[in-house]
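re: ur question from yesterday

yeah so i grabbed the chain u mentioned. its 151 aa long if i counted rite. heres the sequnce exactly as i have it in my notes:
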Amino acid sequence: MSLGPAGASLNPEQAENFEDMEKQFAVKAVQHMTTYWAILEKMKGSQLRLTKIDDEIYDHFKQDFPEFVTTETIDEDQMKSKEGKERWRNFMMAYEKKIDDYNFGTMLRANPKFEYGEKETIFAMRMQFYAIEIARNRQGLNDWVYEKAHT
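ran it thru and got these structure tokens back, copy pasting raw so excuse formatting
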């Protein structure tokens, strides 16, 4: 979708219906969230690969965010601060030509100990989701979902 050339002002009479766009985004984000959860119920996260380049993403994430503790609740304010946004933007740009929809919005659990829920879910970019969930899976932090589904 294009709203015109970069830097051009938006003419509301010529713009597409933003409400419909928001609804389409919400549907896609919820589909992604429910699909991921269904996969975690069918396969231990520690055995799951989310992309063809999980190893690269995991190593890059550990290098760029060595202070990130995957077992704790994500500090959304820090993640979305000016500095946090800049760090994540630099991280994500490495995948612009490698991962489809690398910067598409999605839902991310703030803490790996909880299911998706209104208070446990934050909005994140696709590469943030991949980086954090790959790390959680590597550490076995999502295996409980499979175990719960099979008890």
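noticed a couple things. The first strand starts at residue 105 and ends at 109. also The beta strands are 105-109, 121-125.
anyway ttyl
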